[in-house]
Design goal:
Keywords: Oxidoreductase. 31% of the residues lie in helices and 14% in strands. The protein is of the alpha+beta class and 209 residues long.
Amino acid sequence: MADSTNILALEQPILPVLTQRRSLRAYTSQPVSADVLKQLFVAASSAASCFGEQPWRYLVGTRESSPEAYDKILTSMGEFNQVWAKAAPALAVSIAKLHFSHDDNPNAWAKHDVGQATATLAIQATELGLQIHQMAGFSVDKIRTAFNIPAGYEPVAVFTIGYPGDPANLPEGLRDKETAPRVRKPLAEFMFEGAWPGVEDERYDQAPV
């Protein structure tokens, strides 16, 4: 069952699972089974990509079955992220293959496509009652060294995977972030039909920072 806590209220109706996806920090200790993990990454594989290259690669560590990989991913994170991420039962790294396989030319859209795949994974996770939290706060060099990632591949993000837990278990300062109302910019701020907006038409003051 999808996580229905703190859902988005939007100006147009969309698929409920999209409103339920969130980047939580509080997790239960419930393990994510191997079959569920496979579902998530198969979902990622369904994403579109330039030339059908599918440039995404993922490294996964679980506390139960691959604790060494789990620790490598965790310790690559900044200290702030480690404080809460260590509660998640599974951690992952998204990685982009930077050149096309058919001609070895640079793939300028590789990271875009990796993002699409991970977004698809996030929706599948939400549908199954899990959530993921993607982060830029990690050391690319630590990941590259820890896992011997070869040239031509670049770590893009790290993310947690797990079942929603009690925000009360978070350190003070993060609890309010977990339960604060979720907001999105109004459509007029980012959808421009027909032409780029003039200064007088921009509405960047509408969304809270």
